[in-house]
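re: that complex we talked abt at group meeting.

here r the seqs, copy pasted straight from the sheet so there may be weird spacing, ignore it
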Amino acid sequence: MAKRTPRGSVTREAVMDAALAVADRDGYEAVTIRALAAEVGVPPMTLYTHFADKAALREGMRERAFEQVVTATAEGSWQEALEEFAGNCRAVLRAHPNWVPLLAAQTGAPSAATLRLFERVFDKMIADGLPPAQTVYAVTAVLSFASGCMLFEGLMVGAGTAPLPTARLDLVRRLHSPDQHPGVAAATAAVDDFSFDAVFELGVRSLVEGIEKLRGS
Amino acid sequence: MAKRTPRGSVTREAVMDAALAVADRDGYEAVTIRALAAEVGVPPMTLYTHFADKAALREGMRERAFEQVVTATAEGSWQEALEEFAGNCRAVLRAHPNWVPLLAAQTGAPSAATLRLFERVFDKMIADGLPPAQTVYAVTAVLSFASGCMLFEGLMVGAGTAPLPTARLDLVRRLHSPDQHPGVAAATAAVDDFSFDAVFELGVRSLVEGIEKLRGS
DNA sequence: ACCTGAACACCGTTCAAGT
DNA sequence: ACCTGAACACCGTTCAAGT
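got the structure back, here u go
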C-alpha cells in the first residue's frame, strides 16, 4: 500500500505537514499539487510518489491533522476522556480554521493513534458497565457533534476569521425583517454574549449524560 | 443584491435546482460551470447573471437545499419541532448524499424559509419558559449535531453509497491488529446492528434533554 | 446596455522521454 | 527501474467583441 520513500527525499509525513502548512497560511483551496511541490521543494510530479491522487492527499492531511487531536491522557473517567477528546478537536480546529474542510474528506482506515484513543475510551466505558455495543454509538455521537460544531462555527464566523462577538452581530444583522420575525429578533437580542464555546460545552455535556443513561439498560 | 432575471431565461431558483440535480446524478465535484450550463441549456458565461462566482453558486445550492428541510409543521412542542427539524435534515441528506459537501460551504444570510422555521421554534421555546438567549444555543447545538452526524455518516459509508451493515463490517475490517486493540475489537464485535439512525436519535434526544434543563436556570 | 464567445491563467493527471 | 518534463484535457474567470 504505502510507497517506499524515494532515497534522500522527503517523507510522506513531511509532505502532509507541508500541505497542512500551506492550508494554514494560504487557505484550504490553495493546497494545489503545484503549490505543495513548491513548498516541499520538489518537482510537482514527484509528489505522486507519496499519494495516488488528490483525494488521497486530502485523506493523508486529515489523518495527520487528527493525530494532533489524539494527545489524550490515560487518566480519568470515560466521561472526562470523551470531553477531553471533543475539547482537543475543538482546540486543534480553532487553531487551524483552514483545516475545517478536511472534515468533509473521505475517510480511510483509522491510524494507529486514532485506534489507541478509541481503545482507551472503550476500555473505560466497558469497565464502567456500559454495554460494549453502546460504546461505539457514544464515540460516534460525540465525534459527530464535535465535527458538526466546528463546521457550523466555521460557517458562521467565516472559518475563524472574525471574532465571536462579530459573529453574533452578523447573525442579528442578517435578519431581513425583525418585524416579521419577532421571536427570532427577541432571542438574538437577548444573547449579548453568544459563544460557540458554550454551545460546544452544552452539547458535549448533554451527550455524555445521555450516554450515561445507557448503563442501566 | 439579486440580479434581475434576464428576459425569457431561466430563474435563479431553476439554476440552483439544476445544480443540485447535477450533484445528485454525477456527484458534487461534477458541478462545474460548464456542466451546469449544459444542464440548464445556456452558454456558460450566461450563468454569471445568477451568481457572482462559484462560491456564491454553492451558497445558493445550499440555501435551496435547506429549503427542502424547512417543511416543519406548526403543531407540537418545541421538543418535537427540534426533533422534526433534525429528522428532516437527515431525510434530505440521506436522499441526496451528494449534497453533503454543501454543509461545508460558506454561509450567507438565512433565507426567509429558514427564518420562518427558527421563528416557530423560538416562539415555542420561549412560551415554554426557556430563557430567550438559550433558544439560540439550543438550535445551534441541534443543527450542529445534525450536520456533523450526516458528515460523519457520509464519511464512513462513502456518502451513502454502501448499505449500513457494510459500513460496520468495514469498520471492523479496518482495525489493523485486533490483538493490539482488544477493547475496540470487543466493542465493534458486540455491535451486530450498528445504525447511524440510532446514533442520530440518541444524540438528538440527549441534546433536547440537555436543553430542557435550562428551563429552570 | 446587456449578453456571451474567445482567450487567459490556472488546475490534476497521463505518459513517454529521460536517467 | 525509477523519476519527472512536457503535454493534455479540463477548470473558473476576464474582457472585449458582439448585439
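couple things i noticed - Chain A touches chain B through 69 residues (CB under 8 Å). Residues 32-34, 44-45, 48, 53-54 of chain A lie near DNA strand C (CB under 10 Å from a C1').
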